[in-house]
From TrEMBL:
Gene3D superfamilies reported for this sequence: Tetratricopeptide repeat domain (1.25.40.10)
TPR repeats: 86-119
UniProt xrefs under SMART domains: TPR
UniProt keyword Flavoprotein present: no
Pfam families on file: TPR_19
Protein name: Uncharacterized protein
Record's keyword terms, sorted: TPR repeat
Source organism phylogeny: Bacteria, Bacillati, Actinomycetota, Actinomycetes, Kitasatosporales
Domain of life: Bacteria
InterPro entries, A to Z: TPR-like_helical_dom_sf, TPR_rpt
Length: 129
């Protein structure tokens, strides 16, 4: 047995605690506290790095707090795992748009609209142009 202590983010935390933290992070993001949401999600992802839902929520929190490079990285990780996730394409496009990269944004807007032709995605894709 190793003498090294468990990581602080996971120490004494149960799967139920991670679910509670995830739900609390959702509420913090809705209440416009994205940095608080990121703090909670860091421990969730330390314990469950494969959680696409937690990554997507953290990406949204990074976007809301104007941490655009970090948001981009998280959205890209989600898309590596779920290339057909229309929302992730749309959110990544918004991130590129906000970062001043319209060509990259257009590509992801169009992918989002092709995957899920909702009115918001179609309008952003600007297929007529």
């Amino acid at each position: 047995m190793s003498d090294t202590p468990p990581p602080a983010a996971s120490a004494g935390r149960s799967p139920a605690t991670h679910v509670i933290d995830y739900r609390a992070a959702e509420r913090l993001l809705a209440a416009r506290d994205p940095r608080g949401a990121v703090k909670l999600l860091d421990s969730v992802l330390a314990a469950h790095p494969e959680s696409t839902a937690a990554r997507l929520l953290r990406a949204r929190a990074f976007f809301a707090s104007a941490q655009l490079r970090r948001a981009e990285r998280e959205f890209e990780l989600v898309l590596e795992r779920e290339p057909d996730n229309a929302f992730a394409h749309f959110a990544l496009a918004r991130t590129h748009e906000r970062s001043g990269r319209p060509e990259q944004a257009r590509r992801h807007f169009r992918l989002a609209a092709a995957l899920d032709p909702q009115p918001d995605y179609l309008a952003a894709a600007r297929f007529e142009q």
